[in-house]
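Title: Comparing notes on inverse folding

I've been comparing how different people in this forum approach sequence design from structure. To keep things fair, I'm posting one structure and asking everyone to reply with a full sequence. Here's the target:
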C-alpha cells in the first residue's frame, strides 16, 4: 500500500514509522531484526531502509603501496525491504539515491522494486562522497532529486530510458522526498530551499519527510511556508532522540540544525551517556505529543538501527 493511502486510511489518526540502516557487510541481519521486533507492536504501516553510496577503501599491496578500491559498506537495501515485507507484512521503503548511480542502474533498481511489490520509494540526491567537497553526479546519473523523481514518474507512465520499450504495463510508485525545516545545508536561504522542494513536488513527489529537528516550531513554520508555496502534499515530521554527548557537536555540524538552549542545558547537566539518553527520550516524547496534538499524519523516527529508546518513546505516545 502507498504511504498516501495509509495516511488516508488512518482518518486523521497519527501513524508511527521509523527508519533503519542496513548492517555493514559481514554482519548478521538477525541483529537488525532484533531491533525491529520490539517496535512492531506499535503497528508501523511502513519502515524506511536507507541506502549508502559508494566510497573508496585503500588496500595494501605487496610493494608497500596502497591500492584504491571502490565499494559499498552497507549494501542490501532492496533485499532488506523484501525481507521486511515478507517477515513483518509491512510496507518497506527503499531509499533511492542520485549519488553513485547512473540512470540505467537506477532503472534496474526500480524494476527490481516493482517486481518485489514495493509500492513506495524515497527519492534523495544523497551526500557528496567523503573524498569530494561538493556533490557530483556520476557520468549518466541524476544530478538533483527532482531529476530522480522525474525518472521514477516516467516509469509510472511506462516510459523507460532510451525509449526502446513500448509496454502497457506501468509501475505505480508512491514517491517520497526530503524536506528541511532549517533548510538544506547547501541552500542559500529557506525560501530557495522551498522552491527546490516545490520542484520535486511538481515533478511528481507524493509526500515529504523532514530532516530531524528539535524545535517543533521550526516544523510548524516550515509547513506554513510550504503551503504558501503551493505545496499540498503530506509533510511528515522526522524525529531523532539524542543519545550521546557528542550529538551536541555532530548533529549541528553535519545537518546544520539548531539545538534549543534548554535541551543543551539539560544534556550538559548529565553525568554520563545513560542520563543523556534519557534526556533525549523525554525530549522526543514531548516533541511527539505536541506533534500528534497538532494532527500530523505520521511521526517518523530516525532509529539508526537501535530500538530501545524508540520503544520507550512510542510506549508513551502511541
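Reply #1:
Here's my take.
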Amino acid at each position: 500500500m502507498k504511504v498516501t493511502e495509509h495516511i488516508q486510511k488512518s482518518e486523521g489518526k497519527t501513524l508511527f514509522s521509523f527508519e533503519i540502516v542496513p548492517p555493514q557487510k559481514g554482519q548478521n541481519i538477525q541483529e537488525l531484526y532484533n531491533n525491529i521486533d520490539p517496535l512492531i507492536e506499535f503497528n508501523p504501516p511502513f519502515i524506511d531502509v536507507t541506502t549508502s553510496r559508494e566510497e573508496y577503501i585503500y588496500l595494501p599491496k605487496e610493494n608497500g603501496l596502497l591500492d584504491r578500491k571502490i565499494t559499498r559498506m552497507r549494501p542490501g537495501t532492496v533485499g532488506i525491504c523484501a525481507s521486511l515485507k515478507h517477515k513483518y507484512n509491512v510496507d518497506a521503503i527503499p531509499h533511492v539515491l542520485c549519488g553513485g548511480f547512473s540512470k540505467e542502474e537506477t532503472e534496474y533498481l526500480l524494476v527490481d522494486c516493482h517486481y518485489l511489490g514495493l509500492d513506495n520509494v524515497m527519492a534523495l540526491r544523497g551526500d557528496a562522497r567523503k573524498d569530494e567537497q561538493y556533490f557530483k553526479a556520476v557520468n549518466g546519473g541524476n544530478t538533483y532529486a527532482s531529476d530522480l523523481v522525474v525518472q521514477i514518474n516516467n516509469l509510472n507512465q511506462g516510459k523507460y530510458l532510451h525509449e526502446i520499450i513500448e509496454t502497457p504495463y506501468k509501475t505505480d510508485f508512491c514517491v517520497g522526498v526530503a524536506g528541511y525545516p532549517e533548510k538544506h545545508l547547501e541552500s542559500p536561504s529557506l525560501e530557495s530551499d522551498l522552491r527546490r522542494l516545490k520542484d520535486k513536488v511538481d515533478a511528481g513527489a507524493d509526500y515529504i519527510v523532514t530532516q530531524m529537528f528539535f524545535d517543533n516550531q521550526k516544523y510548524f513554520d516550515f509547513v506554513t511556508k510550504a503551503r504558501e508555496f503551493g505545496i499540498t502534499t503530506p509533510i511528515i515530521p522526522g524525529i531523532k532522540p539524542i543519545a550521546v554527548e557528542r550529538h551536541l557537536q555532530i548533529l549541528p555540524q553535519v545537518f546544520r540544525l539548531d539545538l534549543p538552549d534548554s535541551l543543551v542545558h539539560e544534556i550538559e547537566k548529565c553525568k554520563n551517556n545513560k542520563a543523556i539518553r534519557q534526556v533525549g527520550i523525554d525530549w522526543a516524547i514531548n516533541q511527539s505529543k505536541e506533534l500528534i496534538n497538532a494532527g500530523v499524519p505520521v511521526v517518523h523516527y530516525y532509529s539508526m538501527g537501535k530500538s530501545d529508546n524508540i520503544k520507550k518513546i512510542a510506549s508513551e505516545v502511541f
